[in-house]
Amino acid sequence: GNADNTAMDEVSGQTGAGKIWFEAMNYLLNTSYNQKNKFDFNFLIPFYQDNQIDYGLKGDDYEKIRNMLLDKQLVTYPQDGDIFLSDKDSSLILKSLKEAQWFLNGNLIYTGSHGTYPMAKKGEHELIVKFIDGTEEKISFLIR
Question: 3-state SS string over the chain?
Fold first, then answer.
């Protein structure tokens, strides 16, 4: 898709994003960095669960990550704790699995499940998303 979250005309994932992904991965695979530097496993630590071993980084919230797919969260974008860089033409993308009312710092800014809103001022912000069934989700994010 386009940077403004609209579909591209007559461009499929295979001919658009797929081609870009292939070229980027091919480039990275063949760079001197990839060929001269071995992966440093010293930053990985083991996590043991149900007679299995997973690896992650020190400080990872293993249980949260492990159960991420079980989460019933309806807001898919933005995520709590996101940090955005802003310029005068930036927009905040809003996505949820159901129709909702979106409140930014207490003010209604959008109704629907997929939309955009002009980027707010720099600083910390709170987004409250209210769904028809009465449930709410709160997302805090920072704009720099």
Answer: CCCCCCCCCCCCCCCCHHHHHHHHHHHHHCCHHHHHCCCCHHHEEEEEECCEEEEEECCCCHHHHHCHHHCCCCEEECCCCCEECCCCCCEEEEEEEEEEEEEECCEEEEEEEEEEEECCCCEEEEEEEEECCCCEEEEEEEEC
pLDDT at 19: 81
Answer yes or no: pTM beyond 0.85: no
Q: Which residues pair with 107 in a beta bridge?
A: 104
Which is nearest to 98 in space by CA: 59, 130, 62? 130
Most confident range, picked from 25-29, 63-67, 90-94:
90-94
The share of the chain scoring above pLDDT 90, in percent, equals 33
